[in-house]
Design goal:
Strand 17 (410-414) and strand 18 (422-424) form a beta hairpin. This protein folds into three domains: 7-102 and 202-262, Adenylosuccinate Synthetase, subunit A, domain 1 (Adenylosuccinate Synthetase, Chain A, domain 1, 3-Layer(aba) Sandwich), CATH 3.40.440; 107-198, Adenylosuccinate Synthetase, subunit A, domain 2 (Orthogonal Bundle); 267-424, Adenylosuccinate Synthetase, Chain A, domain 3 (Alpha-Beta Complex), CATH 3.90.170. Strands 7-5-2-9-1-10-14-17-18 form a nine-stranded mixed sheet, with helices on both faces. Helix 2 (79-91) packs parallel to helix 6 (184-198). The chain is of the alpha/beta class. Helix content is 32%, strand content 18%. The radius of gyration is 21 Å and the shape is globular.
Length: 426
């Protein structure tokens, strides 16, 4: 009998739902926290004792001194940026050494990939972060990518693989777009320096994760972005380049999905989206200002990675039901409920007028007509409340609506930015 639960935390919308805060809270019940997909395009922010930490590639569990953190094989890792992130944590007094493990099977984001993504973004206007994530995943599928384990074979081996990349892919961009790429020797030197800094952190942890999950338990899997940015199940092509759903956890970590005891879905109390793509419940200018904030607070709706203002709107119950089903959600964490205080009436989209379910194409999703149910809301400041029973009736009514739509319990309720601003609803 395992002493601790194995859990997956997954975003239910377009990312930015507040996954990091819940992972930070759940880390106390875990021994290992592992990121299973994505890369430096993710921005997970946590406020601890008045200090705000923004993590891009390192699992959120690093903020707890006794936890092991694993960067899984499903990630694409920007190694120089990872070094910067770890150095910044070290400068803040957080000891990461002997606690971070990096899968040698994870692919590397090259400076070449950032050049390509900038070109692609000019052509396609998807709204990416230009961090090279998509091209890195494309090279992984095209079997011309570099993996972290390649760094252990020496500089000459790295240069050989980079020469191959330039010969197969680089020449196409040079001819078509006059793209300029750094020399393989220069890129290899930076990667080699990154590997030296990471030292013994590059180690295959699949067997360790499997043993932990099977025996003691306590594996906490952390996803990046959200379900509606899934390559398979999101609003394609306005999506990320990896599998963001709970199903991506087993692939990105390398352990049996059946070892997980609980899948927790994170849903913001309203919807946000960064970048282009369909957003059926996007609000008018006035509503967006109310939900987004001015940018003066760390919790306002501006991207942790890019600083871009997020598009904001009412909660989309159609997406909520879809995401619950796709991920096999067991319980929901509803974040940022405090932001809805004094906004009256509140609205939740319960269905689309012109579609019976989530459409499969972005073109159809862009013309979806939401039908709303209104709720009375509340005026009280709920940010200091820590017990469910003490919430105003309007807040309880709103939470009940989420439970009714998803047919799952809302177990965690976020009422502020700090790690302690959380209500656990039994």
């Amino acid at each position: 009998m395992r002493k601790k639960k194995n859990r997956i935390v997954v975003g239910m919308f377009w990312g930015d739902e507040g996954k990091a805060k819940l992972v930070d809270f759940l880390t106390k019940y875990a021994d290992v926290v592992v990121r299973y997909q994505g890369g430096a395009n993710a921005g997970h922010s946590v406020e601890v004792d008045g200090r705000r930490f923004v993590l891009h590639q390192v699992p959120t569990g690093i903020l707890h001194p006794d936890k092991i953190c694993v960067l899984g094989a499903g990630m694409v890792i920007d190694l120089p940026k990872l070094v910067e992130e770890l150095q910044s944590l070290e400068d803040s007094g957080i000891d990461w050494r002997n606690r971070v493990r990096i899968s040698p099977r994870a692919h590397i984001v090259l400076p070449y990939h950032k050049v390509i993504e900038s070109i692609m973004e000019e052509q396609e206007k998807i709204g990416t972060t230009k961090r090279g994530i998509g091209p890195a995943y494309r090279d992984r599928a095209g079997r011309i990518g570099l993996r972290v384990g390649d760094l252990l074979l020496g500089k000459n081996h790295i240069i050989k693989l980079l020469d191959r990349w330039l010969d197969i892919a680089g020449k196409l961009y040079e001819r078509a777009f006059d793209a300029e790429f750094q020399s393989p020797s220069d890129v290899a030197s930076v990667l080699e320096s990154s590997a030296d800094f990471l030292d013994r952190a590059i180690i295959d942890s699949t067997k360790f994760l499997d043993d932990t999950a099977r025996n003691s338990g306590g594996v906490l899997a952390e996803g990046a972005q959200g379900t509606m940015l899934s390559l398979n199940w999101g609003t394609y092509p306005f999506v990320t380049s990896s599998e963001t759903t709970a199903g991506g956890a087993a692939e990105g970590i390398g352990i049996d999905l059946r070892l997980f005891d609980e899948i927790i879905g994170i849903a913001k109390a309203f919807c946000t989206r960064v970048g282009n793509g369909p957003f059926p419940t996007e609000g008018d200018e006035n509503l967006q200002k109310l939900l987004r904030g001015t940018g003066e607070h760390s919790y306002d709706e501006f991207g942790s990675t890019t600083g871009r203002p997020r598009r904001c709107g009412w909660l989309d119950g159609v997406v909520l039901e879809y995401s619950t089903r796709i991920n096999g959600i067991d319980a929901i964490a509803l974040t940022k409920l405090d932001i809805l205080s004094k906004i009256r009436p509140l609205k939740v989209a319960t269905k689309y007028n012109n579609f019976s379910a989530i459409p499969s194409t972005a073109e159809e999703m862009s013309i979806a007509e939401p039908i709303y149910e209104e709720f009375s809301g509340w005026d009280d400041d709920i940010s200091k409340i820590r017990e469910y029973d003490k919430l105003p009736d309007g807040a309880k009514e709103y939470i009940s609506a989420v439970e009714k739509i998803s047919k799952k319990p809302v177990k965690y309720i976020g009422v502020g930015p700090s790690r302690d601003d959380l209500i656990v609803k039994e």
